[in-house]
Amino acid sequence: MDFIIKGNLCYSEGPECLMTLPGGYLVYAGGVCAGAYGELPQRYAGLPVTDYGDRLILPGFCDLHVHAPQFAYRGLGMDLELIDWLGRRAYPEESKYADLAYADRAYGLFADAMRKSVTTRLCCFATVHAPATLLLMEKLEAAGLMGYVGKVSMDRNAPEPLCECSAGKAAGDCEAWLAKASRRFTRVKPMVTPRFIPACSDALMKRLSALAREYDAPLQSHLSENPKEIKWVRELCPEAKSYADAYDRFGMLGPRTVMAHIVYPEEEEIPLLRDRGITMAHCPASNINLRSGIAPVRKLLTAGVKVGLGTDVAAGQTVDMLRAVTDAVQASKLYWRLTDRSAKALTLAEAFYLGTRGGGAFFGRVGSFEAGYELDAVVLDDSGLPHPQELSVGERVERALYLSGDCKVVEKYVAGKPILNRTDTAGNGA
Amino acid sequence: MDFIIKGNLCYSEGPECLMTLPGGYLVYAGGVCAGAYGELPQRYAGLPVTDYGDRLILPGFCDLHVHAPQFAYRGLGMDLELIDWLGRRAYPEESKYADLAYADRAYGLFADAMRKSVTTRLCCFATVHAPATLLLMEKLEAAGLMGYVGKVSMDRNAPEPLCECSAGKAAGDCEAWLAKASRRFTRVKPMVTPRFIPACSDALMKRLSALAREYDAPLQSHLSENPKEIKWVRELCPEAKSYADAYDRFGMLGPRTVMAHIVYPEEEEIPLLRDRGITMAHCPASNINLRSGIAPVRKLLTAGVKVGLGTDVAAGQTVDMLRAVTDAVQASKLYWRLTDRSAKALTLAEAFYLGTRGGGAFFGRVGSFEAGYELDAVVLDDSGLPHPQELSVGERVERALYLSGDCKVVEKYVAGKPILNRTDTAGNGA
Predict the structure, then answer these.
(1) Position A428 pLDDT exceeds 50
(2) Contact call for A405 and B427, based on CB within 8 A
(3) CA angle B263–B268–B270, rounded 5-degree value
(4) What pLDDT is stored for residue A427 in this prediction?
(5) What is the greatest pairwise CA distance in chain B?
(6) N or C terminus: fewer CB in 10 A for chain A?
(7) Average pLDDT across chain B, whole number
(8) How much is the ipTM here?
(9) For the domain bounded by B61-363, which CATH number is listed?
(10) Measured between beta carbons, which residues in chain A are less than 8 angstroms from residue B388?
(11) Are strands B146-150 and B188-190 parallel, antiparallel or unpaired?
């Protein structure tokens, strides 16, 4: 079942190195990407070729932080900061997912939007409801996406319909869900998901950490998003040396952990995050919309912390990862201008790297077209961006990132499997 | 030729007041808007009705600052600050407009994009080339847009192909163009356009100011965009009390003047700008992309300065004014968080106001659906944004602003004249 796709290839070879191959060949052989080539090596000459002509072919993007149940109210209610926003926007909407009929409708729209987007892999929050979370996993798997979904755990400081009341019940529910979810799906896997420190008791955190080890599951949560939240965590955990330490005390920081945001890391937290090998999900649009601020990405990268990008729908308004890439560049420019002149702004090549290979590393060899990587690829029609002058492939990619609303995803491969009909030309970022 | 259009109306009655009329009637009578009504008054019962069903109908948006010749390289080359960007991106591209064949191709794409966008009125920079500028005006007029276009004037600190060499020649060229342009078009009018202080000698500024009065033409330029540019102006004009004063000394600040940016106004400049009655074109995306910073819009609004929005293509990447509205909200949130906690962030209603009625005031009674306004309206199909729950018209508008890439302009009225075919469903922001 080996094959070749042909088109204008563009991918990261490293944080500063955006590689382009006009009219290049992307080879799928032996179940993985066998490399990207300007001229087809003789040994692949017999393979079937799908020729995408003048279209752009990019690696699949990896959305490291997205809340599926919040998709229903994306682009709405951006007038609040985090804690008020959770109480007045997020929790009321998430409560609806006790109703499986509503979940079916809403998660159907989310899965369809993800299918049509440039995203191939994701780390996704669901709600506390196990049945709806299984439904979401089923829909994402059917849509052809890969990645992780988390049933959210909360046993304190949450409204009644979402609060799992006791650590025992919350951990029991999580374990029952983990047992089912681990067996039922092949492309979408469960992820232990304590919402954040304020919503999880110590007793629950201990149990969740043990469950992650027992089920060999990755873990995701939120870290240092908003000043008020950080102050609250300090009050709730006077014994913790830092917000990161509040997770670390439970053994929750490790190479299979994604922590979203990290807008206000303290000096001593940074080496801890690096040494534990966690991956930061940088969510610039969300941090702006909720007035949280701008994460010091340059500082974290320089310190050696692993970083990927997240859309954080619905605090971020769109699931479009192309926009997340340029949002990251723009946010870093303002951080340089307004906060720290030593923090060089991200280049577009760096942000592209974060959105593909940087975040992709959390899923294995994902996010590039080098030999040995999984073949995740997005075929993009940029003919909605006419131009009077000649443009290089690199320039066309740059423009597609900044003006993604005018581009269309015409095909998408996830681990070598095409998941859109060739005739489907629905816009990305829906 | 009176008529009615029907649909879900949304418009500003004031900076904080976004009015919605689900299934409302927008009446065009006697050459102007005769008001928006939830129920049709008996006196209009006989007029023909175009029913847009469940679509959204918004006032036309007013782009107070856009560079037509830069449209060709929108979304490219965002790695430089203003002065370097002008030298390495803007000026080389603008030099191409000496070639009318290139201008025809490039301005054709620009006019088509403007036609399909949510913009109905604009203040537009061309280049120094009079023939190409007339061609641009012709294309915008044919596309049905209204507003002002400026042949740029520059006689110093500009590269050879764009520098008009002497104040006399530059002023003469401007006058010859003004004479032709004033007579030739009905919907698109000329605007005197000194590029900015660094590119115009005192002698040229004196002549341009006189020409604006003589031809009863409005005037546009740039003010306080970037720290390096501001420092340069201080060196070039040691006798001016401020950057604004450097224009004011030539009588260039008045109620028919648009000044783009104003990112770093000095305390004494603000009352001057208010008292002269100029309109500020706030261009948040541009100010972020070129790392200029964030303009203190709240402070200027509170002081009574008139403010509208501009896309500033190509320093801003898109001509989509819906995005400019949400960019303005987002930039103001970061300004509040990172720079000045007394500067309350813009609400979405306020930013909508700036993008329609605020900027519209520069063109007369434009930007609202109240009786007596000109009828500029955009019919928007937001069915690309599916949702599982009921949404109010206000919520749908909010979402269309944040996720404009998934909406389509299906019709647009400029001063009562429909300018898109009903079958044209090309996306906005192209």
Answers:
(1) no
(2) yes
(3) 50
(4) 39
(5) 65
(6) N
(7) 96
(8) 0.96
(9) 3.20.20.140
(10) 72, 102, 105-106, 109
(11) parallel
